[in-house]
Amino acid sequence: MGFFSFRQEIAVDLGTANTIIIHKDKIVIDEPSVVAQDAKTGKMIAVGEKAREMHGKVHEGIRTIRPLRDGVIADFNAAEMMIRGMIKKVSSKNGWMSPSLTMVVCIPSGSTEVEIRAVRDSSEHAGGREVYMIYEPMAAALGIGLDVLAPEGNMIVDIGGGTTEIAVISLGGIVSNKSIRIAGDDLTEDIMEHMRRVHNVKVGERTAELIKINVGSALTELDNPPEDFVVHGPHQMTALPMEVPISYQEICHCLEKSISKIEAAVLSALEQTPPELYADIVRNGVYLAGGGALLRGLDKRLQDKIGIPFHVAEDPLHAVAKGTGVALRNIKHFKFLKQ
Questions:
Q1: Which stretches within the chain are classed as H helix?
Q2: How many CA atoms lie within 13 A of 95 on its CB side?
Q3: CA within 13 Å, CB half, 118
Q4: N or C: which end of the chain has fewer CB within 10 A?
Q5: Spatial contact of 182 and 164, defined as CB atoms under 8 Å apart
Q6: Distance (Å, rounded) from C-alpha 310 to C-alpha 192?
Q7: What is the pLDDT of residues 275-287, one digit of tens each?
Q8: Which of 140, 116, 168 is CA-nearest to residue 277?
C-alpha cells in the first residue's frame, strides 16, 4: 500500500471557460468548466465535457452551472464539486487512492483577497493538502517560455473566457498590471445580441461560440478570409426556422466595442510601465495568450494601433496551464507563488 501514500502533485488552470489539469508535465484534463447537478438533491450528475453537452438542453430536474464568472468563483459549492470531479477523473486514470495533493492553482491578477480565499478553500475542500497560487499573466509568461526572473521587462496580454489580464513582468514579479472583465464570454454575448438585433434570430451560447470560432475577426480585411458561416435558429417573432449566412466582416463590426476596450486597457498598462521596462517591451514585443489570442487579425490590429510588435504564443490556449505546470516543478525556487 506504500505506493498509494505518495504525495501527488497537480497544476490546475481554473478557467471561466475551461479547466486544465497537468500531472507529471502532461495535460491529463482539458474540459469545459461546467457541472451538472440534480436540481432536487444537488448531487453531481456530470462534469466537464458531458455537462457542457447538457448545457442549454436540460429539463427542470437537472441544473447545469458554470461555477466561474469573470475568472473568479461565483458558485462556491459547484466549484468545489467541479474540482473534486476533475481530480477524481485524473486519479481514476492514474490509479491513485485518496492521495495527499500538492496543487498550484492560477488566479486572475486582479483578484481580491476574498476571491483568492474562495479558490484556496475550494481547492482544499477538493483534497488539496498544500495549495499554492500563481497569477495568470505570470503563468502565461512561464508557459510561453520567458525567463520571468531576468531583469528584463516582458508584457503579457492573456485573453481568457472571463478576464483579460495584462501585466508587465520583471525579476519574478508583476511590475504593472491591468485586469479587465472583458474577454471571450463578452465577445460571445456581443454575437448573441447582434444576431437578435440585426437578424431577428435567437442563438444560444454554444452557437455564438461556433460563430466566433469560425468567422470571428478583429479586422475587416484579412489575408486568408474564412468562408461565411451559416446559422440556423428560430425567428424571434414567428418562431419559424431561419438560415442566416454570417461573414467575418459583420462579426468584426459587432465585436468592435469589446476589442476597443481591450486595446484601451493595453495602452493604459503601457502608460504605467517604467521607462526602462518600456524600452524592453518595444524591443521584445508583447505576447498574446489565452483563447482570445486566436481571434483572427487581433495581433495585427493591436500592432498597427500601438506600434509595438505583438506575438501570438505558440499554443495560446494552453500557455497558462503549461506555465502553472512549470511553477509546480519549481515550487522551491519561485518566491512569487502565494501560499
A1: 49-54, 76-94, 113-125, 136-144, 184-199, 205-215, 248-271, 275-284, 298-306, 319-329
A2: 3
A3: 20
A4: N
A5: yes
A6: 29
A7: 999 999 999 999 9
A8: 168
Instruction: Report yes or no: 139 and 46 within 8 Å, Cβ to Cβ.
Output: no
CA dist., res. 38 & res. 44, Å (int) = 6
Q: Count other Cβ atoms within 10 Å, centred on residue 278.
A: 17
**Percent with pLDDT over 70 in the chain:** 97
pLDDT tens, position by position, 4-38: 446 788 999 988 889 999 988 899 999 999 999 99
* pLDDT greater than 60 at residue 2: no
Strands 310-312 and 286-289, how do they pair?
parallel
Three-class DSSP category at 80 = helix
Task: Please work out, in degrees rounded to the nearest 5, the angle formed at the alpha carbon of residue 217 by the alpha carbons of 215 and 219.
Answer: 140
Report d(CA 280, CA 264) in Å as an integer: 21
Band the pLDDT of 159: cuts 50, 70, 90.
very high
Cα–Cα dist 322/158, whole Å = 14
| One-letter identity of residue 74 | A
CB atoms inside a 10 Å sphere around CB 240: 7
Q: What does the alpha-carbon distance between residue 158 and residue 160 come to, in Å, rounded to a whole number?
A: 6
| Burial state string for 190-223 with b = 16 or more CB within 10 A and e = fewer than 16 | bbbebbeeebebebebebbbbbbebbbbbbeeee
- Distance between CA atoms of residues 76 and 102, nearest Å: 21
C-alpha cell at 171: 525579476
